[in-house]
User: Fold these one by one.
Assistant:
Number 1:
Amino acid sequence: MFTARLRPTAPMVLASLALSLPALSGCSSSWFCHDTTAERGEAGRKVQVVDTGGQPLGVTVEAVGWRLKPHPQVPAEGDKVHFDYRFDGADESRGPTVDACAVDKDRVALRCTTVGAAGAWPEPDGTRTGDDWLDVDHPGQVAAVLFLPNDQSHDRPPCAADPKDGGGTHPPESASTGDRL
């Protein structure tokens, strides 16, 4: 009995090559770069820092105090928000970076800045502490200083900037004045 064997045709060879190309180049099965943005976590005085997947990093950051007072370098500009913070569980040489915001009684951001564990001072107990200033338009409206839990330190390049290695999940946009936290 004779068994027929199919001879590969040029279109079949090209299709086979096209399907194997991503595997050979180290790319995933997707031909396209995809950008997504992580969801912003709930702000608090003390938060567990999370990665872009929402998984805890084992680091907490806490606003340990804040006060209104003139900045020593520009006292004529009036009161600013001076706040102290503490990272617990952060790495000595690098660490997460998070947004800190002065908010009013309705948790609306009056001004925000980004602070990082790497810029804080190491303490004997293993924590890292720091302080920063926020210049708000109406200092008397400040009710608290809150942190957002999302780590902002490992933002990958977007697909538009690097279509081969970019993409993936990015941290949410940094908080800004007027955002409800």
Number 2:
Amino acid sequence: MDKVLDIVDISEGASLSDELLTEHLAPLGQRALKHIGLLTAGLTDAGVGVRATWYTQGGHVRNSDWSLSGVQRVRYLCEHSEFTEAETVAVIGWLGAASSFRGKVEIRTDSGETIRASTDEELTGQLDRFFNKRVQAEVEVTTVQFSSGRERKIYSILGLQNVSQ
């Protein structure tokens, strides 16, 4: 829910650039963007915004107001984003950062590129076995082309194994 409210808040920002909003939308993936697009289409067609109050388990309250213009901004980005068919590639490099809280890793490839990728829950629980080691990762790569022409790659780790130096 926090991710959705982050998108609501960013869409209401004074910045005319959609760069930050795009950076928050892309990692959600094609399916989520489709659903957010349907939600924003319904709100736009009805000519309304949304006011949401979210109560976290810790007792914190978060309020977000989504104006019609903010809704339209998100709708446009969702409807004009194109996802390529995911391809699976093998990547070899050093796993230098891993977050078991967020399910994210960074791998520095042999060519010097740093890949930031997500991991599923099962693999996230095993990241300590691979941290600061040379690994071979099976990576699913999806490219998103946004209306602005900006392109972003989304990486998801499907499998990891240690490799010798």
Number 3:
Amino acid sequence: MTVEVRTFVITGEDSVPVEGCGLSFSRDDHVQGAIELHVNGVPILGRDEIDTIDALWSLLLTYLERFAAGKEEVFNFPERRWTLNLERVSGARVLVTFEDGLDRRRTVASEKSVVCGLAAGAVKFFGAVLSFAPIEEWSYRRDFNLAMKMRAQYS
């Protein structure tokens, strides 16, 4: 089972991979971007699901941490009326569902691959952000460390 995660940042009219955007991140900047998430070849999230990207990743990490602790709830995007839901089903698998009011995308995959894949995406995102962020943005370091912990826990 494969989980592919990439993060894009909106710069002008373009969306570029976060690793090469060159933007200086700060929590006050409200940088817009999107997470591209494919699970077993099914596009769950794409470049059209734009939100404040650092807040989105930070809240998604908190959601993953709560999910790993056994709490099942729906994740709401910070600025949109969209939801992402991980629901445990039989055989150590999860039903991954995205809904935006008009569209529903869903697939089933192993819990380990989904959580580890999302955590790895967060590690990549916050690692890139830390290379561009002002030194005083300690919350990015906190999120990076949480993503590292989640990835190790599900590896």
